[in-house]
Amino acid sequence: MGNDVARCSTHDIDRALLDVVRLTGAHVGAVYECVPQEHVIRMTVVTGVSRRIAQPWSRVAMSAPVPVAEAARERRLIWLSGHSEVARRYPRTALAFPYHSSMCVAPLLAGSTCWGVVLLLWPGNRAPRLTCRETDAITSAADRMGEVLQEARIPDEPVRDPSPLRTLAHARPAARRTEAEAHAGADLVERLHEGLFAMDLDGRVTYLNEQAAVLLGGERPATTGARLWEALPWLDDPAYENLYLSALFSRLPTSFTALKPPDTWLSFRLFPDLTGVSARVAPASAPDAGPPRAPDPPMGAQSGAGSLFHLMHLSSALTQAVGVKDVTGCVTDQIMPVINAHGLALVSADDERLRILSSLGFPEALTERLDGLPLTVNSAGARAIRSGIPSFFADDDELVRAYPHLKDLYSDLGPVCYLPLLASGRTVGCCVLRFPRPHPFPHEERAALTSLAGMIAQALERARLYDTQSQIARGLQAVLLPRTLPDIPGLGVTARYLPATSGMDIGGDFYDLIRLDHHRVAAVIGDVQGHNVNAAALMGQLRTAIQAHATSGAPPEEVLKRTNRLIHGLDPGLFASCLYAELDLRDGTARAAVAGHPPLILAPPGRTAGVLDTTPGVPLGIEAESAYEATVFRTPPGSLLTLYTDGLVERPGTDLGAAIDDLAGQIEGLRSRPLDVVADELIDQAWRNGQGRDDIALLLIRPHAP
């Protein structure tokens, strides 16, 4: 019964894919199905390219920032009008798939589950927007596929693994030709003085005329059925196969020039369609600047131009990792699923001892026993680190034969490899990968895994350096920001600071609460330009200057004026915004002065929260003699004052004034809650809205009866 359901669902999915390809005019279509237990999304059927060519893109980690994974995660249709938009929104995808195509990915939804996605490609010169008819066809097909996949699920059983990748031929009317017409067509092609040949969707030559055979220098029987870049050594360059892939995926004519040894230049022009690629080859003069090259080929482990596709894709993932935790998370979440590893351990060599940085899919007894052992121990990991030579074991027997004294630990590991992590001329650790049985580790895979280990090593070394620098930076930040805020009777206060997600985890946002006398207090918040040590140093100077002028009895406008003069005289090459508010807790009055900073938001009792109308003033450090104005307002007990930096409200594509109004609306809804809850909710909302690239400082103040 289960097999019948699976066969029926497979047929329905295939039919739906071919229908949507036909209705929308797409030239490549594929269906990916989610594999929740493996945290991946896997291609199960494709049309328009061969299985070999589709294979490098057939398995994607669900956490990867690529269109197919994002469409499944966010359950929304993604439309990319061309390669430039792909590069802007998904740089990793553009790096690994550098072809001029338009792309649409739609989620397959049914019930409360996303079962997968459907991917469609069009030529890169199509219209920049989907038509209503195309959109309807895509959403209808996606709904149909989602329902089919849901119905195929057996109740009370885990979601089934998708079937192996299969390919479908484009449906097209059969051309009726007589035998005489076929012979006449062949004679026509043979009489031409140009070489002509045809390739299928896998790049194999299906026909070439005599002139093409002469020009290429190969025998017709030997060339037919082979890929040119495999049959002819002088075309054995990934760039030439990538030109074929470029024509195949873009469905646009492509041309290039190649040198046939010793000194014969040939021009090639490729004409793709739904069934393959027709090509013309002719003698050519030597180009001035060498043969034109295609975009750098994608890298993977399956085919020539794609033989290192996974490495390119995974390398781009590693470049986004910052600290050691990011690297281990990237390897675990994005690399393991793609290379189909079932276990991974990252081991460092610290103080001549093994240190397990991260482990997943290995017995706890194994990692506990190996963690902390000296490098002199006779184990596979220690040997890889000492020697710098990778080792591959296809099964338990091979591993136990090499290390019989560790039989109790190694006997149930299965296929495993130990890859030394080499960076800057030294071994910094070891990457251990565990695979399902059987796994013979062919030569190509060994080379790819060794290259991957080199990328992990470089990322790990960068990450450890970053963590060291970041630790120093955080220490400096902790010294410059107030450790605690003074406990002032009649005043509730809470503060939050979050560093930027880029840079060195250190910035110039600051806040302070200064006791002026027994009933007056000053609240300060500011933002120094930049996210580096210089910004933090200037922030420290600002805090010191403001405290000195504030405690001398100067009013808010004078505090900013004096501080501005000092900062301008220091000439740090940076400027800063600042908001300084002085509160009198005895009579409930306040004065605020602003130097180019976002306005204070005030929520008085019985009135709606709103933006305080203040004169913005010039940021500190720009003009030596800038003047500032103070605004007087009331702060009766129960009022909520919100001081913040622009990192809390700024987001791309949104007007700053509108964002501040939105913040006031959020505060209105939270005003009755405890200050800590209000602060946490505001920070969380900022992150949900996509903020976090800039520092965020937040200071909440609520006067109350002492």
Automatic annotation (TrEMBL):
Catalytic activity entry: O-phospho-L-seryl-[protein] + H2O = L-seryl-[protein] + phosphate
PANTHER family noted in UniProt: STAGE II SPORULATION PROTEIN E, STAGE II SPORULATION PROTEIN E-RELATED
InterPro entries attached to this UniProt entry: Bact_Sigma-Reg (IPR052016), GAF (IPR003018), GAF-like_dom_sf (IPR029016), PAS (IPR000014), PAS-like_dom_sf (IPR035965), PAS_4 (IPR013656), PPM-type-like_dom_sf (IPR036457), PPM-type_phosphatase-like_dom (IPR001932)
PAS domain segment(s): 188-217
Endpoints of the signal sequence: none
Protein name: protein-serine/threonine phosphatase
EC assignment: 3.1.3.16
Functional note: Primarily acts as an independent SigF regulator that is sensitive to the osmosensory signal, mediating the cross talk of PknD with the SigF regulon. Possesses both phosphatase and kinase activities. The kinase domain functions as a classic anti-sigma factor-like kinase to phosphorylate the anti-anti-sigma factor domain at the canonical regulatory site, and the phosphatase domain antagonizes this activity.
Class of the enzyme per the UniProt entry, highest EC level: hydrolase
Pfam assignment, any one: GAF_2
Disordered: annotated span: 282-301
Keywords, alphabetical: ATP-binding, Hydrolase, Kinase, Magnesium, Manganese, Metal-binding, Nucleotide-binding, Phosphoprotein, Protein phosphatase, Transferase
SUPFAM superfamilies: GAF domain-like (SSF55781), PP2C-like (SSF81606), PYP-like sensor domain (PAS domain) (SSF55785)
Gene Ontology molecular function: any one: metal ion binding
Record carries keyword Metal-binding: yes
Comp. bias intervals (Pro residues): 289-298
